[in-house]
């Protein structure tokens, strides 16, 4: 697989290769993305399965795991940088499950095709029906086909910040 093929074909093969080991270590893959600019970078976003906050040590642990797997399989023949990080509070929405998990929160969504006269939507996720993401945008209900979403992320709001605090607090309580 060449660097160009990684850009064109996505990173599904790399994700499939590393996901079992990352999960075994106690993390979920949020997104695997290859950025082919001046500084070629393989970006891996993770979150803890126990939903506690990601630390620098967590990133280092996953980096070691992924580096070992990539060294053995060698799916990226050219030089690149490996970057492991938390998705952050304004995390990308990549899987249908992400939309289910964050129903009720505000998101910014860009579609691949023009839908209802536009490609960019911002509004509250109101649910998921099959493979359609339900959103309330500008007072109107919109059902976006999941397969037509180019990119999406949560929008930082006071409500999201408070929910993140509650989730982190609950995760810390379960540890004691």
Descriptive overview:
This protein has about 180 residues and is of the alpha+beta class. The chain folds into two domains: about 80 residues, GMP Synthetase, Chain A, domain 3 (2-Layer Sandwich), CATH 3.30.300.70; about 80 residues, Ribosome maturation factor RimP, C-terminal domain (SH3 type barrels), CATH 2.30.30. The protein is about 35% helix and about 35% strand. The chain has five helices and eight strands. The strands form two sheets. A five-stranded antiparallel beta sheet has the order 7-6-5-4-8. Strands 1-2-3 form a three-stranded mixed beta sheet, with helices on one face. Helix 2 packs across helix 3. The longest helix is centred in the middle third of the chain and has 18 residues. It is globular, with a radius of gyration of 18 Å. The N terminus is likely disordered.
> What oligomeric state do the depicted chains represent?
single chain
Q: Give the terminus-to-terminus CA distance.
A: 46 Å
Beta-sheet strand percentage?
35-45%
Compute the average pLDDT.
89
Q: Write the H/E string, N to C.
A: HHEEHEHEEEEEH
What is the CA-based Rg, rounded? 18 Å
Structural class: alpha+beta
Give the total of domains: 2
CATH topology of the largest domain: GMP Synthetase, Chain A, domain 3
Give the strand order of the largest sheet, numbering strands 1, 2, ... along the chain: 7-6-5-4-8
- Which architecture of the largest domain per CATH? 2-Layer Sandwich
| Name of the CATH homologous superfamily of the largest domain | RimP-like superfamily, N-terminal
**Which CATH class of the largest domain?**
Alpha Beta
Shape field: globular
Number of strands: 8
The helix fraction, in percent, is 25-40%
Low-confidence stretches: 1-5
